[in-house]
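Lab notebook, bench 4. The sequencing result for the construct came back, and we need a structural model before the next group meeting so we can plan mutations. Quick request posted to the team channel:

Model the 3D structure of this chain.
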Amino acid sequence: MSVEEGTANHGRLLGTVRGPQDVKRMTAEQLDVLAAEIRDFLIAKVSRTGGHIGPNLGVVELTLAMHRVFDSPRDRLLFDTGHQAYVHKIITGRQEGFDKLRQRGGLSGYPNQAESEHDLIENSHASTALSYADGLAKAYALRGEKRAVVAVVGDGALTGGMCWEALNNIATAGNPLVIVVNDNGRSYSPTIGGLADHLSSLRLNPGYEKVLDTVKDALGNTPFVGKPMYEVLHAVKKGIKDAVAPQAMFEDLGIKYVGPVDGHDVAAVESALRAAKNFGGPVIVHAVTRKGYGYRPAEEDEADCLHGPGGAFDVETGQLVAAPSVKWTHVFADELVKIADERPDVVGITAAMAEPTGIATLARKYPKRVYDVGIAEQHAATSAAGLAMGGLHPVVAVYATFLNRAFDQVLLDVAMHKLPVTFVLDRAGITGPDGPSHYGIWDMSVFGVVPGLRIAAPRDSATVREELREAVAVDDGPTILRFPTGTVAADLPAVRRVGTVDVLAESARTDVLLVAVGSFAGLGMEVAARVAEQGYGVTVVDPRWVRPVPAELVELAAGHRLVVTVEDGVRVGGVGDALGQAMRDADVRVPLKDLGVPADWHPHGTRAQILADLGLTAQDVARDVTGWISGLDAEPVEPTRRDEAAAKN
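Done. Here's the predicted structure in token form:
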């Protein structure tokens, strides 16, 4: 039977769920049926839209148990990260929105306050929920409100330092707070780190609690000897368990530990959660789950258990429906391996995202030269600094949105020491379906202030390869290479190169200098053609290296009547801002117009839809440029620096 047929024939119980109260009324048998129906529903819907299927198949029973024990929205349920909240959305009355999941007008792929009162945290960056939970619990305690706070934390999120800072404070405060560790042994890929090893060991010893209960019952009924003997055996047992489990670590902090429990057994999870809820202090409930549970293609996917297919996929096989294409990530990964073949000092680092960033390609050939540090971008940056101090050239590959978390480390641990570390930022610019917390629009603005840091923005496959090689050749400071998501653009050769700046198009008239950053090069060419139809000449350039601003770019600006920059980063502090400042410093008085992304929270949708909303299409930009340059025709021309120099001669 197909998933679609299963949904049609066995979705009747799911159809009755309009809120958590409906789940609370169900019997154990009904819950088992409901769990199966939810999995059928998820597979059928996400197979059409793409999204995070693997993580959500693993938390079905866990989420059902949470909504049976706690009273959302009065009790606050926080998900870290939010990509495992699909089942929560289903239970809280949003089934209809899944037809357009992650699409314009449909559900967000993460919790979203605008969708439901049951959602609170919209930030989908990992390792943050425990800090939110700590603050909420303190607030409710001070206000005298009896409201439970529950944080669902993946074991991968526990590799992030914020979690441990939060745990220290949670234990000190002692407020009622339930931490559910969803332990599936994976974040994107198998979870890395010492805690992961502890949790894995514990999964191999499921009988400790059962054995202890049996001994306690038997000895408890024995006069005189029973209680003392039980205490001795309990101490022995605790010593054994401490060697393989994190229980002692958490309890030494002052946090009660419950588990492990089978995360796919609603009754078992519910029992543990009720005990935790009634404890009156911070409690960790350790639930062992399987990512992709109940869907064979996900369970058999060794790479990431179908963590997050980017588009529609075949239900029977789990394979993407769209024909394979060459992605920006693939080009980077291929070139990095070629560079590593030539340079044994080049090593790779990633933060739990080896496959999505392409670092896995290097790891397959040179496993000892790749370090996956878990969800710990701050550590990744400073560890890279140490590697560079030790004579290596680290290439740190993360999503653009996630490097924001390590700004201080890039600034003071890497750049201040002038260390040769290359940061490769995948998914730069507007990425689309994953929404505002995943948009990589901040990097050029945020990191543009770092002294000595160079930022490159390739426009196509050839320049990814070229600029990556240029970046790893830098030995006196850090570099950033940024590129967008999706299919790589067709190669766009330059007409000529001026210094480090590529001239892509030029005409006899020098009306407009159009500075097209990175993947906007193709848009720049189309804009030039449209503006030329109105009788104006446009020079299109790709600066290649946008920070620091190339001196040649300022010289080119001085020879035109108008300069226009277009970039897929925020305007404030972006490339346009930087070029404007460089022109002012050089006393180049040519007017400049900068086009980019407003510093705001832009909703999810396709990249094309969002860029259209922002006026960053060829038609919109051409209209703007034509209006600006024609407006200059009616104004007195202020001499540029070049005009003044010519007059003096």
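Confidence is low (pLDDT under 50) at residues 1-10, 199-216, 218-226, 236-244.
Will bring this to the meeting.
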